[in-house]
Amino acid sequence: MSEYMQGGALANDDLDFSAPRGRDHAAERSTAAVKSPALNVAIGVSAVAVLAGLALWAMQLSGGMVQTAMRNLDSWGLYITGFMFFVGLSAGGLIISSVPKALGIRGFGGISKVAVFSSIACTVVAIGLVVVDMGQPFRVWELFVYSNLGSPLMWDIIVLATYLILSCVYLWAQIQAERGKVSAVALRIVSVIALVTAVLVHSVTAWIFGLQQGHEMWHTALLAPWFVSSALVCGTALVMAVVIGLRRAGYLEVEQGNVVRLAKLLGAFVLVDLYFFGCDLLTEGFPGGAGAEVVALLTQGPLAPYFWFEIIGCAACAVICLTPALRRNGLLVAASLLAIAGIFCKRVQLLVGGFQITNLDLPFAMNSMSVTYADGTLADAYANLVYWPTPLEFGVTLGVVALGFLIFFLGLKFLPLRPTEK
Amino acid sequence: MAESKLVMLVDTKRCIACNSCAVACKVENNLPKDVWWNRVMTVGGPHLDAPSGTYPNLEMYNVTVACQHCENPACVKVCPVGATYKDPETGVVRQDYDKCIGCRMCMSACPYNGVRSFNWEEPAYHLDFPVGDQDVAPHQKHVVEKCTFCWHRLAKGLAPACVEVCSARARIFGDASDPDSEVSRKLRERPAMRLLEDRETEPSVYFLQ
């Protein structure tokens, strides 16, 4: 039985006073980390990748989206998969940082600001991926002039914009609070609002898919809570990986007890997420019929590699996080990366799976605009994954992700994100 | 104008899958290369024009599938800018190319896969001059388009082009809110089915059995 399950041992592994003793030394090291050439190189590399992405996006717009693999029967692809994924990834930082403040419980040491900043970077990536998916990005102003407030996509745009602004305000409030310019009460109020928005942003993103009666795989009430739990998994994993990485680089000092508490949280979130998956599979599959088709598609169909990677990766992550003897830094980072990759696989299953089952399974004369692989029959097009991105899509996506990295690295260099000395 | 409910009936006992309606649609609306708003699908075996079953117990019929102009359209609800909307007077689901931002939310919301078509490239044509009716809205790159029930013809009191050309006279178009119309009479006389009725979109296209 792990220590996690035994109340008495709970406090023990949180008490680790070795870090404060090394603080003086740490301050010197972290200043060195900010000035290190490695950070400058990272900024340079991401900036170049962003520029390359912009060039590819211009290519996509001028030459047409026919250069992507998306077609009429599978009309969304890597961009929207990435959008779902990064919205989820952005959760962790904000929630890890705001829950302790909102509820007035003990936090995770000085990682709050770095965590929120990682959220901001992920949110920018998510918004960027929607923009590159649009056929007419220069008509984006119409969203504000002709808003159809009944559309889940419109809700998402509103909530996502609010979320980004709130995250920035929240970060600013934390920095000001440390300087004594914002009261603890005000900070607490901001953190409550930020927390509510964070939960909303994942639910609304889920509703873009879950409210559609057109796709058997998406149309489930569980989707919104499930998006929240998946977001908590990959978000917490990201924060843990980033914190261990930055500590290794000497950017900040974090007590091992805080990392362990993050690991326990991650373990619990992973179990909740797997539980939801189990519930959904059972509910889909039990009555037979169309739902059983979805289960077969996941467990043994074209999506099986993504399904099993997620299940095994997440299970392994839970084992590492919840077994005290395994909570070593290297393994914890591996567990985080497994969880993040597992959730990405989940996004692939959800997006491609939605298109993989045709409602009208009737042969017709296909052409190159109908479906990604239109050379054979309709059955051939769906025999394997119905969609696989083109190099252009990978390139544009990399460019948008690089924008997130660029923002994050610039923040590390220029913003006061390190824990302050008490 | 009084409220009407325009519907299309397709008699599956008459349809011979000649594809005339698909071609008439393409010509009338000056559809770009590789864009088809109306397609003939085989209900039967796994291939086009192939029956199900084994000889001599074979079965096959055809459904011509374009926008179903649903009474409860999934696409209209999800469009963030209202580029796709339902005409309140006729029940026709319309699409405004100038407003469409190309997010393709309507395409994933529509259960009738493929009736909405996106112009994945700059519209190109087989002929170097436009064909069809001059009142058809010009096609645009990176927007969603679909069957309009030949809106430009309705405005002139004409039936959609697919109805006009159907060589087997399998298509009947009219106002279902008028009990004396031919469509209302046929719907009373003949059993009819609609595609994916379980999705509760209430299509305006009926297939007479």
Describe this structure in words.
The complex is a heterodimer of chains A (422) and B (209). Chain A has a single domain (28-414), classed as Formate dehydrogenase/DMSO reductase domain (Formate dehydrogenase/DMSO reductase fold, Up-down Bundle). Chain A is built from 15 helices and no strands. Chain A has helices at residues 18-21, 23-35, 37-63, 78-103, 112-133, 142-145, 152-178, 184-210, 223-248, 256-285, 290-299, 304-322, 329-356, 378-381, 391-414. The longest helix of chain A is centred in the middle third of the chain and has 30 residues, at 256-285. The radius of gyration of chain A is 22 Å and the shape is globular. The model of chain A is unreliable at 1-23 (pLDDT under 50). By secondary structure, chain B is an alpha+beta fold. Chain B is globular and about 50 Å long. The two termini of chain B are 33 Å apart. The chains are: A mainly alpha (422), B alpha+beta (209). At the A-B interface, α7 of A face β2, α2, α3 and β6 of B.
Supply the key terms.
heterodimer, A: 422 residues, mainly alpha, Formate dehydrogenase/DMSO reductase fold, 15 helices, disordered N terminus, B: 209 residues, Alpha-Beta Plaits, two-stranded antiparallel ribbon, 4Fe-4S (chain B), 4 iron, 4 sulfur cluster binding (chain B), metal ion binding (chain B), ET_IronSulfur_Cluster-Binding (chain B)
For the largest interface in this structure, which chains are involved and how many residues does each contribute? A-B, 51 and 54 residues
Which structural class do the helices and strands of chain B define?
alpha+beta
CATH topology term of chain A: Formate dehydrogenase/DMSO reductase fold
Radius of gyration of chain A: 22 Å
Low-confidence stretches of chain A: 1-23
- Strand percentage of chain A lies at under 5%
Q: Percent range for helical residues of chain B?
A: 10-25%
Number of strands of chain B: 10
How far apart are the first and last residues' alpha carbons of chain B, in Å?
Answer: 33 Å
CATH superfamily of chain A: Formate dehydrogenase/DMSO reductase domain
Query: What's the alpha carbon Rg of chain B, rounded to whole Å?
Result: 17 Å
